[in-house]
Specification:
Layout lengths: L17 H8 L9 E3 L19 E6 L5 E5 L3 E2 L9 E2 L4 E2 L12 E2 L5 E2 L11 E2 L3 E4 L2 E4 L11 E4 L10 E6 L10 E3 L1
Antiparallel strand pairs: 1-2, 2-3, 4-5, 6-7, 8-9, 10-11, 12-13, 13-14
Length: 186
């Protein structure tokens, strides 16, 4: 036996059986639901004069709620209404699906040493900062081969580091002249 779902004039699925709606809800992702793109006219009720959805969002029907909403596109956070409805996810985050929500709806890149452009919509847009190389979804520090002091010479300073952008200085032993640069940068 079937139970009628509560529906109203603004419901995306009016007069459907609850069983049918439950089948549709199987597609819900962990983020709280999927959204089906609808004609913008369904969202005109949210403002006077129509055209309520932000240009970086669309009128969508929530598969869980069955309610029309202005929803920001992937890569953008906010609640989708004009004038300030959708803001790009900041550097170092991404948002792969359309959903309403605050800044927390943008997911941080998997490694703290990763960056992504503003408005990123996929984890593949997260790349390692300079000085790191990507190994799967994490970043490792780039290291140069360890240097040895030159023949008839020595390092200046206490330590010659082999980390990215570190600089090592050289000096010659007494009686020898330096040929080339007096330092090298990793």
């Amino acid at each position: 036996h079937s139970i009628k779902a509560h529906s109203g004039p603004d419901d995306c699925f009016p007069d459907e059986d609850l069983d049918i709606r439950t089948l549709r809800d199987i597609t819900i992702d962990a983020e709280g639901g999927n959204y089906i793109v609808e004609d913008d006219s369904h969202c005109h009720k949210y403002c006077s004069g129509g055209g309520c959805c932000h240009p970086l969002g669309q009128c969508r029907c929530g598969t869980t709620t069955g309610v029309y909403e202005c929803v920001c596109d992937p890569g953008f956070w906010g609640f989708g209404l004009l004038p300030h409805g959708c803001t790009p996810c900041p550097v170092g985050t991404y948002k792969p699906f359309p959903s309403p929500g605050g800044l927390e709806s943008c997911t941080p890149c998997p490694d703290p040493n990763m960056l992504s452009p503003n408005g990123s919509s996929d984890v593949t847009q997260c790349t390692c900062k300079p000085g790191f190389r990507q190994v799967e979804q994490r970043c490792e520090v780039i290291r140069c081969p360890e240097l040895r002091a030159p023949l008839n010479g020595r390092f200046t300073g206490m330590v010659c580091d082999n980390r990215y952008k570190s600089r090592c200085g050289f000096a010659c032993d007494q009686g020898f002249d330096l040929v080339g640069s007096s330092s090298i940068k990793c």
